[in-house]
Amino acid sequence: PPSAQEMFNKSGMRASQHDKEKDKEAATYRQWVAQLDHIVQMYNSVLTELLPVEEPLLEDRITKMDVALSPGLTDLKWRSEDRIPEFIENTMKVVSDVSGGVDIMK
Questions:
Q1: Residues with Cβ < 8 Å from 32, sequence gap 6 or more?
Q2: Does residue 79 sit in helix, strand or coil?
Q3: pTM, to two decimals
Q4: What radius of gyration, in Å, describes the C-alpha atoms of the chain?
Q5: H-type helices in the chain, by residue range?
Q6: How many CB atoms lie under 10 A from the CB of residue 97?
Q7: Please, are residues 98 and 64 in contact by the beta-carbon 8 Å criterion?
Q8: N- to C-terminal Cα distance for the chain?
Q9: Which residue has the higher pLDDT, 2 or 81?
Q10: Residue 69 and residue 94: Cα distance in Å, rounded?
Q11: Could you count the other beta carbons within 10 Å of the beta carbon of residue 16?
């Protein structure tokens, strides 16, 4: 039978590996949250900076942003880890493009 020290070492190694996996997972979530926060800031900036006369000019682009963001509001969950990176990448591109266009207009 294993000694108490051997059991402690084995369980400590498993816990350590488990902790590393959890740390990696937490870092991934923090990165996603930061990226999503940036997307939300750009989106809100677009909507609040537009003058009423400018909104009709960008209506199709605003709709495109809303469509891109929709899965994040309806379908995706934090457990959708295989779909979140693609969602962030696609949404970042769409919202960045619209935001850049608004910045040029201003």
A1: 84, 85, 88
A2: coil
A3: 0.78
A4: 22
A5: 4-49, 59-74, 84-105
A6: 13
A7: yes
A8: 75
A9: 81
A10: 9
A11: 10
| Nearest CA-CA partner of 36 in 79, 105, 95 | 95
Rounding to the nearest 10 degrees, give the CA dihedral for residues 76, 96, 62, 70. Answer: 0
Which is nearest to 84 in space by CA: 72, 67, 95, 97?
A: 72
Phi-psi bin for 70: left (phi > 0), alpha (psi -120 to 50), beta? Answer: alpha
CB 72 within 8 A of CB 36: yes
Query: What letter would DSSP give residue 82?
Result: T
> Quick count: other Cβ atoms within 10 Å of Cβ 43?
20
Give, as one character, the DSSP assignment of residue 77: -
Can you tell me the mean pLDDT for 66-83? 91
CA–CA distance, 42 with 68 (Å, rounded to integer): 14
Encoding tokens for residue 73? 């509001």
> Are 48 and 40 contacting, i.e. CB atoms less than 8 angstroms apart?
no
Res 106 pLDDT > 90: no
Cβ 106 vs Cβ 80: under 8 Å:
no
